[in-house]
Amino acid sequence: MDNLCVAHRGFSAKAPENTRTAIQMAMDEPFVQWMEIDVQLTQDGVPVVIHDYSVDRTTSGKGKVKDLTWQQIRRMDAGEWKGRQFRGEQVPSLDEVLQLVKGRLKLNIELKTSGNMYPNLEEAVLERIHAHRMLADVVLTSFEPKALIKAKELDSDVNTGLIIDAHPRNLLARLKQMKCSFLSIGFSHLDAAFASDLVKNGITPMAWTVDDAKSMRSLARMNPAIMICTNRPDTWSQTFIHKIAPKVPFWRRKWRF
Q1: For residues 160 and 141, is the Cβ–Cβ distance under 8 A?
Q2: How many domains does the chain have?
Q3: pLDDT score at 245
Q4: Which of 51, 132, 167, 242 is catalytic?
Q5: Residue 251 pLDDT more than 90?
Q6: Is 257 inside any structural domain?
Q7: Does residue 141 sit within a domain?
């Protein structure tokens, strides 16, 4: 089975998304090769791993991430909303996640921004990636084209990818113009012909968010290069695991975009 499993915000079906527990649970599954996380900046410029622009849904706190300091966010409980057994979970910094997964998982890091919400997000994220010497192990993705263009301007070697939940006719041309080597696309907008065109042009497609076996099998039939991003790595395992017999551990493979 060649369609790689990407744990969406960690093993988010079972643990609070984007937390150390969710990440560790994903890492505990030997077939999980990649993980998708979301990164924003605190008021004092610390890259933190959280999805929503507000902390309200996934923590015990209130307010927008950009208006809160790292220490304020650190004091919030980021686990009890998912279950009492996760009480005490914290919002992790990007540093903590990079340190945790280095040498084991590759990362799809979504630059969670819109317009000029975070003027220094790209610099801050790239700085931490370089500090951990993980440039070859990550791809930076975003719904915001400006963020991807800026990341490429800061470091031409970084792999970048557009996130989109649509399939406009000019999408392939846009990706080439932006020098993207990756596309994160809502799975219902992907078909075999487009997947083939992407691969032929050196662009890796990732389908999101796919939690049922039927859709996973459909994507696998389209093209073996399609990465499957899921909240349910266990469903991916039940669907495909019997076909996996890698000669080299996943975390030791060299990845190309």
Answers
A1: yes
A2: 1
A3: 42
A4: 51
A5: no
A6: no
A7: yes
Residue 77 corresponds to which tokens in the numbers above?
């409980």
CB 23 within 8 A of CB 10: yes
Per the annotation, the verdict on 8 as an active-site residue is yes
**pLDDT (mean) for 31-58:** 98
Could you tell me the two tokens for 157? 């070697």
Cα 152 from Cα 47, distance rounded (Å): 19
Catalytic residue among 8, 167, 189, 242: 8
Distances 234 to 31, 58, 109, 160 between C-alpha atoms, Å: 10, 23, 22, 28
Can you give the CATH number for the domain in which 227 is found? 3.20.20.190
- Structural domain harbouring 108: 5-247
Q: What is the pLDDT of residues 177-214, one digit of tens each?
A: 999 999 999 999 999 999 999 999 999 999 999 999 99
Contact (Cβ atoms closer than 8 angstroms) between residue 184 and residue 161: yes
Strand 138-142, strand 159-164: pairing:
parallel
What pLDDT does residue 241 have?
A: 81
Instruction: Answer left, alpha or beta for residue 80, where phi above 0 means left and psi between -120 and 50 means alpha.
Output: alpha
Task: Give the whole-angstrom CA distance, residue 66 versus residue 74.
Answer: 14
* Rounded Cα distance, 85 and 71, in Å: 23
Q: Is residue 192 part of a domain?
A: yes
Is residue 254 domain-resident?
no
The token pair at 83 is 């279950």
- pLDDT-based confidence at 2, cuts 50/70/90? confident
Note the pLDDT of residue 10.
98
